[in-house]
Amino acid sequence: MSLSSSVAPPAAPGPDQSGASGSRRDPSGGGPELTLVVRARRSLALDVVCFDLADPAGTPLPAWTAGAHVDVTVRPGLTRQYSLCGDPSDRGVWRIAVLREAAGRGGSMHLHDRVGAGTTLTVSHPRNAFALVDAPRYLLVAGGIGITPLMPMVADLAARGADWSLLYGGRALAAMAFAEELARYGPRVVLHPQDTHGLLPIGDVLGDLAGSGAHEGTAVYCCGPEGLLGAVEAACAAWPAGALHTERFRPAEPAVRDGDHPFELRLARSGRVLTVRPGQSVLAALESAGAAVTSSCRDGTCGTCETTVLGGDVDHRDTVLSQAERAAGRTMMVCVSRSLGERLELDI
Q1: Which residue, of 14, 76, 171, 253, is most buried by count of CB atoms within 10 Å of its CB?
Q2: Would you list the domain boundaries of the chain?
């Protein structure tokens, strides 16, 4: 499951895209990859399996915050991103939940069919582009496996005594992971199985908030399939800037488009000038030239390859940067974004 996070343009002095207390996101991953062992595996719901990952020697794992995800090397040559859905205070275990997707690219099928207790996996340090910002109140909206990054948020907000609620939809109650665990939060959590209740009433819920004025100061966090995200984005179109925070499973648009033109790419630190061809990504051009750039998803969803831009206008094609960050043009995701002009200069 590839992940990408974005937020509507922030209103000054409102919170930035992510990071606790409005801090800047940390896309770096924080260090070298880790070799972890699956301590336990259990079924959470129909077609959803949970894996508890731990250091084989019992060494405490790196710290993380609600909304973070890790890259998991499912097998050689196949890496997928999964949200951490356990307890951030538990440094002994990282927990991920994986939906079996028969029509996917093979990652979830491999984990479901080949990985069990005792299996070792290569895992990155956590990155967080979907962290909670400070707000008077929170509305969390989840669709299906999109509940995973929101589970630590629920625990965090509940522990703080914050004003929050969760609207969680799924195709059927039996397919909704963590349904039993969420029941303890009472009326703050609304479970909405589609087979018995229909589609999530996004327009009604968000419309009621806007009509009562409660949308002022409400931070909305949404993760789920594209249809749900589109509905939430449409319903929040007139909300205050910076209110909506989303995380996607897949890129919202193709990275390669008809009419892409070649452009020069200047590497400021070395002074080298490369040519990026039509249909070639900046990342591919850099790798061909031997320039080391850390990357993961390669489709503009995880934020790993974020690079500082020193000159030129960027054609942003990721789903990580906010509109305000895109307009500022200070960074780009080199795996998908290109140049609007004939030349681009990067801090490489």
Answers
A1: 14
A2: 33-124, 137-247, 263-346
